[in-house]
């Protein structure tokens, strides 16, 4: 493949590559950097592309591998090593200890609100919350896929309303007490 053909093929894939980069990074600047790095690596390794294979897949594999390598590199650099005998550096943080009591209470209240949902909405919603896919819920409950999706949607909608009502009332009580 000539440099001109390679360049034209790359230009055709630009839009797809940019959107794929954004889907990986969730950040415009990081996506642009990832795209640039992919372009550089693709052009510097163009002789490794085998004509007759999927050019887009080759480019996306390069991009995904660059993303994974960068992620692993960042993760490694963020790891703190403390070689002192009593782990002084790790144990001397000035951060406050986070008490999860409020979160636990909120989750208990949330589960109580979920328990108040009608059975037809609660069961698919709980299964979805536990990680089941829509089609798995439909199979287990012997319901059409669209019904499962709509019941989960209506359960979410009802939960939002109940939470809004409950926590607006608490907010109003707290602001009156102040």
Automatic annotation (TrEMBL):
GO biological process, one term: DNA-templated transcription initiation
InterPro entries cross-referenced by the UniProt entry: RNA_pol_sigma-70-like, RNA_pol_sigma-70_dom, RNA_pol_sigma70_r2, RNA_pol_sigma70_r4_t2, RNA_pol_sigma_r2, RNA_pol_sigma_r3/r4-like, WH-like_DNA-bd_sf
Annotated RNA polymerase sigma factor 70 region 4 type domain residues: 108-159
Swiss-Prot/TrEMBL keywords: Sigma factor, Transcription, Transcription regulation
Pfam short name (any one): Sigma70_r2
Residues in RNA polymerase sigma-70 region domain copies: 16-76
Superkingdom of this protein's organism: Bacteria
Example GO molecular function: sigma factor activity
Protein family: Belongs to the sigma-70 factor family. ECF subfamily.
Protein name as it appears in the record: RNA polymerase sigma factor
């Amino acid at each position: 493949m000539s440099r001109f053909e390679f360049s034209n093929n790359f230009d055709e894939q630009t839009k797809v590559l940019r959107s794929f980069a954004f889907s990986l990074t969730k950040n415009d600047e990081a996506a642009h950097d990832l795209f640039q790095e992919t372009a550089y690596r693709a052009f510097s390794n163009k002789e490794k592309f085998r004509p007759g294979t999927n050019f887009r897949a080759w480019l996306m594999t390069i991009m995904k591998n660059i993303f994974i390598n960068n992620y692993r590199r960042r993760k490694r650099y963020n790891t703190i090593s403390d070689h002192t005998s009593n782990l002084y550096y790790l144990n001397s943080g000035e951060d406050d200890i986070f008490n999860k009591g409020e979160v636990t209470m909120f989750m208990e209240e949330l589960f109580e609100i979920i328990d108040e949902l009608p059975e037809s909405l609660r069961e698919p919603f709980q299964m979805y919350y536990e990680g089941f896919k829509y089609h798995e819920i439909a199979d287990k409950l012997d319901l059409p896929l669209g019904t499962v999706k709509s019941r989960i949607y209506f359960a979410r909608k009802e939960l939002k309303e109940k939470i809004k009502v409950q926590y607006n009332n608490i907010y109003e009580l707290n602001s009156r007490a102040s």
